[in-house]
Design brief:
The protein has 236 residues and is mainly α. The chain has one domain (10-235). It is built from ten helices and no strands. α1 (10-22) packs across α2. The longest helix is centred in the middle third of the chain and has 41 residues, at 60-100. The protein is globular and about 65 Å long.
């Protein structure tokens, strides 16, 4: 699966620096190096710009700090996924297979394996949060995470409010907290498919554990909501 952004590893960047210093700038051999570096920079800027736009900091110093922190995170993120995606794909397949067989123990085992792999990326995740915290508020850091996860917290939460219109204030708070936990993990995911998988993980917790204990029937609630939408579409 593809990472958020394709960039070179630290070793590659160091190699580029060595080559550019060793090859004369007017040498044909320097052209591919310059092109590769330009592509790397352009790719990073492409993924960082929407975050800066959402933050709307209007502070050049803060924008520079945020950009540098994100650049370091995205670079490490790509290198890490290149090394770990094969194993993660296998574990996610195990999870989906177990879920289809209604094998909760097997699904839980697969999730534990996934968590174990991602534990090795935690230092980079922590550096992202601590680096952003030097210039951003917790609410602004949440905005960064929302952009990195295509606003899945709000979209999913709003859907829950429609599917379960009788949720109490306390129940809404629990649902939102779980979705924010999903976002925290999905930030580190490689592809949009995997980000969605982390949200699925927490939707299972919300529906099969929490809401079921609270007296709701999630399957029936979804059927009722689908029927309501179908009726509304037919009436238009």
């Amino acid at each position: 699966m593809k990472s958020i952004v394709t960039v070179f590893s630290c070793a590659s960047v160091l190699a580029i620096g060595t080559l550019t210093s060793a090859v004369p700038t007017n040498s044909p051999a320097s052209a591919p190096v310059a092109t590769a570096a330009a592509k790397q920079t352009a790719s990073l800027q492409k993924h960082i710009k929407p975050i800066l736009d959402a933050l709307n900091l209007q502070d050049t110093a803060k924008e520079t700090t945020v950009s540098n922190v994100l650049s370091a995170f995205l670079t490490a993120h790509t290198a890490w996924h290149q090394a770990n995606d094969a194993a993660l794909k296998g574990y996610w397949n195990d999870f989906n297979h177990s879920r289809s067989k209604q094998d909760k123990a097997g699904a839980d085992k697969a999730l534990a394996e996934i968590d174990g792999v991602y534990a090795t990326f935690k230092p980079e995740h922590d550096k992202l949060v601590s680096g952003l915290a030097t210039v951003l508020s917790p609410e602004q850091i949440a905005t960064v995470e929302d952009v990195l996860t295509v606003n899945k917290v709000k979209v999913t939460y709003d859907a829950y409010l429609e599917i379960f219109p009788t949720l109490t204030g306390e129940q809404k708070a629990v649902v939102l907290k779980d979705l924010e936990s999903a976002r925290n993990e999905a930030v580190d995911a490689g592809s949009m498919t995997e980000k969605s998988a982390f949200f699925k993980k927490y939707k299972i917790i919300i529906e099969e554990d929490y809401l079921t204990r609270e007296g709701y029937d999630p399957k029936q609630a979804r059927k009722d909501f689908a029927a309501k939408q179908k009726a509304a579409a037919a009436a238009q």
